[in-house]
Amino acid sequence: xxxxxxxxxxxxxxxxxxxxxxxxxxxxxxxxxxxxxxxxxxxxxxxxxxxxxxxxxxxxxxxxxxxxxxxxxxxxxxxxxxxxxxxxxxxxxxxxxxxxxxxxxxxxxxxxxxxxxxxxxxxxxxxxxxxxxxxxxxxxxxxxxxxxxxxxxxxxxxxxxxxxxxxxxxxxxxxxxxxxxxxxxxxxxxxxxxxxxxxxxxxxxxxxxxxxxxxxxxxxxxxxxxxxxxxxxxxxxxxxxxxxxxxxxxxxxxxxxxxxxxxxxxxxxxxxxxxxx
Length: 277
Description:
This protein has 277 residues and is mainly alpha-helical.
């Protein structure tokens, strides 16, 4: 038995479907989610390969562009951000109702994190697209490099690790992913339309960009808090549908996000020297 098969058996966890009439899927949302989870678990190396290629490409391209004029790409950038914005809004609208419903139930907060219940086909479909979309979002960096804008650590590190994290933890079938999906779709549903409008030179007050950064930082803080809550429940002998590998991945990656976004926010909006520059 090779290491990939061992990883698959450990990571692909069953979560039975519940498809009430209120969460009836559209025809295109009907997928073989267990098969997709097994595929992702078996091919867990894919996002690592993609990250390696991504880093080589963007930094090679950045070097290539060093002594060349930047491209404008405003129309293409507006379309790119607009499409990702619409996609994020649709994803949020399709998974938020189930998320809200379980929160409103008895013990909803705990159940939303620790109980494998409430999985329906729309939630499964948009969870899968959530993971696959992280590959598409790597294209954000190409616009930054081709337009010769600053490519900061937070930008490329976040893209790489978000793709890896989504691809690795989705097969675990954890209820926590509903939180991560709702928050990410929600923030991106605001962020990408904002970028689209900015690329079209639509005036938007600077304070709005601070609101988006605040939402991003809040997303990271909440994710870290949920991970700590899971550890507390497990540590006190309670039951929580979390896998050891996921606890480590989420804790390390979202912990690093929390630090990087806090640092970015401080330097962008509160550091007097940076604001002056």
